[in-house]
Input
Amino acid sequence: MASHENETLLARKSSAQTRSSSSPEEWGEGSSSYSSNSSYSGTCSDDSYIANWENHVGQDGTLFYAEYSYHGAPKISASGENALNVMKGDFSRASTRRSSKKTNASSKLSRLIGKADPKKDEPHRSGQSHGAGETSKVTFSEGTQGEVKEVEMFINPENRFKYGRRATASESMMGISTCPFPDGNRIMVAGFVANSEIGNEKSVKVGDWFKAINNMEITVQNLDEVLNQFTRPVKVVLKFQRISGEEQITPNFNTIHQIANFESYAKQASELLVAAQPDQRNNQAPNEMVMSMMILTLEFSDADIEANDVVFCYPEKEENVLFGVRGSFLTLNSILKSELRSEPITSSVVSDGHEYHICYHSYNKILLLYAVSSKYSTLKELTLRTQELVQYFQFLYLGLDIAFSDTIRNEIRYVCEILKAQLIENRGLPRFETILQESHLIPLPKEAQLRIYDAISEMEAMDYREWNDEPLNSHREFFIFGSVLYFKSYLLASHLPVAQLAGLESFLRCRGIFSFIEKQNVRDLVLWQEIPMMSTTSRFFIAISSRNQLLLATILQSFTSEQRISESGTIEEKVIGPSLFYIEEIQETLDHLRHGGIEALARVWMTSNKRPEVVLSPSGLQSKNMVPSKRTEVISILKHRATSSDDVRVESSAGGSSVQSEDSNQKMEDCDSDSDWDGFPDSHKSSSGFDMSEMKDSFLKEVSDIVPSKISAGKENVIYHYVHLDVGTGMILSPPEIGMDAIVKNFRNACYLIHGVLQNTKKFRRLLAQESVKPNTHKSLVAIKEHGILISIKNESGTESSFWVVGRLFTSPTRELYVCHRADIPQNLVEIAFRLSFITAG
Amino acid sequence: MLITNDHTQLDFHSSMEAITTPFRSAGKPIKSLFVWLPAPELPFSTVASLNGTHMFCKSQGVQLKSTHTDDWILVWKDYENTVTLIAAGKGITEKMLWTLLDLVFNSFLLFVSLEEIQIHKNFDRIKREAKSYMPIVDKLLDYCESELLGYSDCVLANENAQVLTRLTEFSVQFGSLFCAVVVNQKLAAATEGWWDLDVVDRKLLILLMSVSNTSQKDVPVFLPKRSSSVAYRFIAIPLMGTATLCVICGAEPAYHEIAALAQQTFKNDLDILESIDRSMPRNFPESLEIDPNILGVLLINKNYKKYVISRNLQQNSSGKRSMSGSHRLDILRTFYNHAVDIIEEFIADASNGSSGNSDKSAKTNVLESYWCSEYHKCHALSDENDNLICVLYVASVPTYTMRLITQKTLAMIVQEKTVCWQY
Output
């Protein structure tokens, strides 16, 4: 949706001179200025209200739509400033909806939108300004010279909440939306609320400097304060000044690319999913195959037809060195199963001097073979990757024991392209905690967590009856089964059962979506796909929306299993395509969270390395082998932290016409106290009185002030890295965004080994539990609950440093904990690190 | 060759099958010998399929190396493009299987020169010699579980120094560099020349001695690693009880002459040899005080490729959870094979090799490793002299004190001159 809004924004900007912002018919003018595929209808009447992705819905109701710009641009775009731009862009959307609701209240869609435009206690918002959106080509002139105009108008504070949670004080009271000038102090008129009094006034134009109310000079800082002084309806004089200076601000914008379906996404995978600068690691030997996937069927009747046992093969058989020997794997699979009664897991072969590891997974009548060159993945890694893949197939197709259609074949082929691109990208880097099935959880500060959960719960409840005075006539189309919020590939909050979370995670990983949102500037990403789940009464869909690096994925449940008889007489289920309303609602929630600073907070929080703190790089160990791009990114984000939080602060005070902004600090302290609710005129309506926007400021400030906590006892911090794996909740705790230095590399390698040993122990315990099996048959399956390895690294300069990698297994509930700490300290200091599991909040 | 680790007594001589399978690849016929040792879990048909799979892959230009299942590991290896060995094992590591296969193939080479296999592809010869090497292969399969295949088994005794002096005397007099005194199939002392031999040669010669049903032995052998085309004489002379003198020499002199010289040299030291023999299950001198928390010790020297394994008899095995002596040794070996041996390779490979562009100058070493299970703890430590010690502790010992005790124990053994561990 962001692009749509930006289009709108663009249209508004281009027509700013003619002052057309309140008349929707004119918005279409510049709509296709950046994308010929853009589906913006241009009329904006509600019946034909079309989102930017709506033309790209596939025949089977699936949708894969993305807009992004390459990350390689000179500006550090994924960080604060860009986020800000996107935020600004988003605002216009909210007003679009409002105006469309008002203009065509009779249409059905507008009712839906009306529902989505909740009138609840969300009076404060910050990022409501129409700044230099990144696609905008309009240049704003500013200066102190210019014609001054005075406008008399009647303002009514009672309108304060009329326009819903998104509206700012200046919008709802005066009908003017504002944004700061680039100097961060003066206020610019950014637009007008439809049908507002001031909107009909011809003399005030978008881009004007909003100088004063009743001769009180207003600035970004005091606008809210001034407006809040008005407690009863009163007539005021507004002073505007036309800007005539020649200062030009040319917004830095990157070209926006558009992806309309999964196919084109997969085809560009090798560009989309890699870091900006290509490096020489990827020089691939000419006769080498990076990976291969074959799906073979175990029952084929006609032996005459060549290769009729192959259901799917990637790459094509001519290029696939393993294609010719697939029969061997089939044979091995069957004899090992029938004679040794054990499932084959992996095989290794050498062809043309290249070693390949092959992983097996058999379904009923189907054998999946996933092969990767040993240069790209170790055997242990491949097993984990295969688990991920199997999980993905389970999630999307309920296993591979299905009727293969061309659609599915193509889909798997695209996934192969993506997997291949990811393998090449991650070559030679051990990825222990990132390819375990469990999700990597980042525990944000408690307040932020509460707010995230609150926003998600509210979205899930879809309790829009209370948001709207009009009674509803229509049944809801879907129920929300659960939803998950990610920042990059890190889980921020989950409302899903563990099984579905794992499935969703594998979906996002196998489709490379995590890499995509991490590596590129994703402006907008909308996904819709039906997924099968074990249920006879309802159908399930995933709806995923992402803005920048925040991603909200939702599983929707529909109880209508309408069937229709197709022409050939078979019963087919009706295709249920993406629901505009639900996707908008998800996007709305996402925007709400982003406006609330969750994204900025997550970014800062992750790089801050404070809760708990780990030692990043011990002296003398700064070796060359860390990935340069990764490290610079972290640094650049760190550098950017100051700027981004500044920007954010300006923003929040610029637009936020918060009724009780003074209370914000107090609120921060006791967010659960009753006093929170008192200030809200109709607090009874609200299930979530939390105001995200004013948190943002304090969040960011707080992060920089926060005292780092460490998990080892003693004066010094001695922990380099840790991974806490909770099998029960399907989550991993680990320091995020850690550079790939020698220690982390070795830590991860060691973890693979320790993980293997601990898995053995689990198996042993299972065997013990089954009384029928004699446990002593496996002497090597000794019940190991802790395994430690002391590793020393000597680098080129001769300095040596050593560290322990210790893995421990906990039972009830099953958890695994891996800690990497300095070698020369007594172990009892580290014991405390094993208490990590208690830290679930930052 | 099919090998399982839990086979029991099988009569290999009668049931061994050898099949020569001609295969065609790109017009050239590949002949290969396929040897099968029956095992209860793997009937001939299965093994034939496993072989067929490998052959098929080969004809397509793909070399099948290994397959892991839930609990089995299968490996295939071609030697000299002539002999294919297939091994399957349960509960052991892939590395152990590879070592085993190498030893098995090299045991062929004790009796058949490499030339005959390489150039003449003389399968008949390999089949004919089966009588000689099959007992060794049989023993190797046993050892898979009860020994470290890549190292020579030694005994630590206070008398080792005296024996070595005597042995050096003998070596000089007799004029052979390759002499060793073996007590109960464990090396007590050996000359520099003997240690100079490849561990495969050493291991196979001791095995050859142990499988023979006579205590006197004088057989012509190839040394697979040192001399695979020229045969030497391998001579075993019983000295006293299980103590035997092993010598490698040329065609001269006659056996009885050598035996006489040996008896002459060692005639005053028979009581020493006997006391070494008596120390056997412990393999460890009484004089060394070992911490009571220690249940067993495995000491390895990676330079000489030798090891000593011992269980501490001081630990009185009362209490319910105490384990039998052999079980302790099993745990130690398992610990070594699964935790120590693999880790070193894996970490070194992963950080130095596979990552391609990464630091070649930075060197990664694994210094220590430990396991804690519910019933016991294991700790391994290596020093700069290529010594590696694995110690089995009772479960009650605190994890952080294990390091101290292990360091102390290692230092104690290495410093003890009479056991001749550190030459």
About this structure: The first helix of chain B runs from residue 12 to 15.
